[in-house]
Amino acid sequence: MTYEQLIGDLKNKVYKPLYFLFGDEPYYIDLVTDYITKNVLTEAEQSFNQTIVYGKESDAGQVINLAKRFPMMSSHQVVVIREAQELKNFEDLIHYIETPQPSTLLVINYKYKKPDKRKKVFKALEKNGVSFESKKLYDNQVPGWIAGYASNKKYRIEPKAAALLSEYLGSDLSKIANEVEKLTIAIGEKGQTIAASHVEEHIGISKDYNQFELQNALGKRDVLKANRIINYFAENQKNYHITQTISSLYYYFSKLLLIHYIKDRSKQNVAATLKVNPFFVKDYEASARLYSAGKLVQIISLLRSYDMRSKGYNGNTTSQGELQRELIFKILHL
Prior knowledge:
Layout: H1 3-11, E1 18-23, H2 26-39, H3 43-49, E2 50-54, H4 60-67, E3 77-82, H5 94-97, E4 104-111, H6 120-128, E5 130-133, H7 142-152, E6 156-157, H8 159-169, H9 173-187, E7 193-194, H10 196-203, H11 211-219, H12 223-235, H13 242-259, H14 267-274, H15 281-290, H16 293-310, H17 320-332
Parallel strand pairs: 1-4, 1-5, 2-3, 3-4, 6-7
Helix pairs in contact: 1-2, 7-8, 7-9, 8-10, 9-10, 11-12, 12-17, 13-15, 13-16, 16-17
């Protein structure tokens, strides 16, 4: 079941006795839980019929006792287990899950830990209730998610602004949603476009010194700009750690290498193959012309080597700032 289907059913008051919400991405798990706790019962009903417990502080027996209660002056009661992966004797829930109380909505938040679906308890959860997996997005999916989130809020966002947020915030959807909310409040009127300048002004991400601009400078073999950016990174290690730089450049140069082997060079196919916004295809193709496939293989090997050095292999003691400067110099002068 998708998030949209799940929320759609809840809005239509189609309730199930069990909601097993699991996965590596807590954002949607929290959204579904918040919707249930705020909308299934009225404020007056919540006082007597809504209970939230935490896995570390509870056990399966306590949860079963809560779930078996009948609602007071309401058609339903809601019981939520937060951090259910920490629940003592979790597998003992099977005694309730096999015959759940129809008037109870038992919401199980099972975060970060993958359930072993071979076990009887997880099979029963899937059979007798709603099972929803909230998957972590891949890094290349985040800019598109940001654009979709902004669109749902009735705003547009420049591809560069979405890329900036993605590079800076990673794939933490809760954090990204909060920052986009800040931007929409700052911009005001719906229908406006969130630009890179707004991101710099209101989120504090420099539109000139970031991973996206470093990629752009290297893609154009702009020595002056690339050195200016990497020197800034080296002096601000707290915000521009070498691990982030290496990861960002690895994905970037891997995409350039892939371009050399794409037969269908239509804009849409290149964008789909690289998993990037079509807006950036022209830039990627221009950069690929400046780097042969052989050079790109050497750069990727170089990135792996510097990743090892940054982690102290072979007794490396070079500072991370100097490693970043060395790396960019070698990429530009291969």
